Each structure stands twice: as structure tokens, then as C-alpha cells.
Amino acid sequence: MHVLALVCTLKPSPAKSSSDLIAAQLLELFAERGATGETVRVVDHDVRPGVEADMGDGDAWPGIRRKIHEADILLVATPTWMGHMSSVAQRVLERLDAELSEMDDEGRPLTFGKVAVAAAVGNEDGAHKIIADLFQALNDTGFSIPAQGGTYWNGEAMQGGDYIDLDETPKAVAAANATLVRNAVHLARLLDSVHYPAS
Question: Which residue range or ranges hold the NADPH-dependent FMN reductase-like domain (predicted)?
Fold first, then answer.
């Protein structure tokens, strides 16, 4: 089983990122359950705006898309900006729109049978809306969402500070992370053994 983490921070590598940290923590938990993991920091790649699988002219999305199709589980990790997901995460969703027109031999979207989970971090409120928006879009494009498949951390309102500044992961976040991973692996295994019906 393989997990692809799309980290949607606005900070190019090698800058430290709270979104990258929570993705790394989740990938460690996935590894404990036998799932290999890979991280793509999307902002490091020239992902062009658009809703096609390949926007041409050096577009980096086709390579990322291949990784998505090779994975069993997709993790989208995003910071919170002004109460919303990052513009990078929004672009990922826009590019995933192309999956609606890509079908397998039995008329199912190529993303059917893949699991998606989400993580949001920030020093302001908005995580519930962000995860709801991510889940709606990911489900629309064919991914399956496990029970309690989202995790988040919000700092105290108007106080500053970031997830990467914490001395340890809060117990509630650690518990949510563990549940997300446990349920995502369970659902991915089920979908691997029993496929969705053909259209």
C-alpha cells in the first residue's frame, strides 16, 4: 500500500512548514501500518492553472498525476489562510477536475478505489470548512473518504504561533491522526479487495 502526501504550503523547500510537519507525522503512522509514503511539496513544481490533465508548456502536473494514480491513499495537507485552504490546495483541486473525464475499461473514473484524507493547520479558525471543501471536491472527483478522515490543528485565535512551534503534538491531534490513518488503511484494503461496480 502506498500513500502520496500533497503538501500545499505556500513555502518552497527547504523552508520549514507546518503542513509538511503534519504530513510527515501522518506518513510515519502510515508506515507503522505497512504503507509506504511519499511527499510532494506542490509549490516546488510548476503546476499550471487549468482543469486539464496536461496544460502543456512544461506543466508539472502530469508527473504529480501519475503519482496520484500509483498511490492507494492521497493525503492533502494545507495551511489555513484567511479562513480558507491555500491557493496551492485550490489549484490541486482544480487540476483534479480532469479526472471526471478519465475512465477505466468499465466506465469508472480512474480515482475510484482510491482513498483521500486531509489535514489542515493554522493559527486561525477555518479547519472544519477547509476539510469539508476538500472532502467535497475529492469525493466529486472519485475518491472515497474514510470515517474521521480529517485532522487539524488551530492555534489560539489572534495569538500567532504555528504547529511547527509546538514542543509536542497535542493529545487530541495525535488521536485524530491515529484514527485517520487506521481508517484510511482499512478502507483502502477493502476497496482493493472489493471494487466499485462498473457503470
Answer: 1-147
DSSP 51: S
Output the DSSP codes for 103-145.
B-TTS-BTTTT-EEEEEEEESSS-HHHHHHHHHHHHHHTT-B-
CA angle, residues 91, 87, 121, in degrees to nearest 5: 115
**Confidence (pLDDT) at 17:** 97
pLDDT digits (tens, 9 = 90+) for 49-105: 999 999 999 999 999 999 999 999 999 999 999 999 999 999 999 999 999 998 999
- Classify residue 199: in a domain, yes or no: no
- Is residue 52 within 8 A of residue 65, CB to CB? The reply is no
| CATH number for position 164 | 3.40.50.360
